[in-house]
Amino acid sequence: MTSIPQLGSNRLILRALSIADVPAIVEYAGAYDVAKMTLNIPHPYPEESAHWWINHSHEGFNTGERSTFAIERKEDGQFMGGMGIHISKRDLKATAGYWIGKPFWGHGYATESLKRIIKYGFEEVDGLNRIQANHLIDNLASGRVMEKAGMKQEAILEDYYQKDGKGRTVVQYRILKREWDPNSLTLNK
Question: How many domains does the chain have?
Answer without folding.
Answer: 1
